Amino acid sequence: MEGVKVYGTFWNIGDKEVKNVTVTVIFTDAAHDRVVRKTVVEGVDLLPDGAVSVQFDAEYLRELTIPKTLVNETIQIEWEEDGQLKTLTSR
Fold first, then answer.
1. How far apart, in Å, are the Cα atoms of 64 and each of 56, 68, 74, 91?
2. pTM for the model
3. What pairs with residue 61 in β-bridges?
4. What's the distance, Cα to Cα, between the start and end of the chain in Å?
């Protein structure tokens, strides 16, 4: 078995409180034709100006590939701000 781990920290740098923050890590494994979504944070409210930070981690386990292949990781953050749903995606 082979593991791919993702660690991160996020916070709100804006001047408004954000609500219902959800963080999902998306593992795309082309060698095994899989896309695995792991929700690692759900329903968190963040105060403005970086007053609070949240850490997360996720792990994806798969069968070993020879030759070694890569798994692409994408982090998707969704939140509510001023009554609107917003999304940020990062690789």
1. 25, 8, 21, 23
2. 0.90
3. 3
4. 24
Q: Which amino acid is at 15?
A: D
Distance, CA of 86 to CA of 75 (rounded, Å):
14
- The first and second tokens of residue 83, run together, are 């009554």
- Which H or E run contains 89? strand 84-90
- pLDDT, one tens digit per residue, over 13-34 is 999 999 999 999 999 999 999 9
Helical ranges in 1-91 per DSSP H: none
Let me know: does 6 contact 75? Beta carbons within 8 Å: yes
SS3 call for 46: strand
Tens of pLDDT along 38-74? Answer: 999 999 999 999 999 999 999 999 999 989 999 999 9
Q: How many CA atoms lie within 13 A of 51 on its CB side?
A: 10
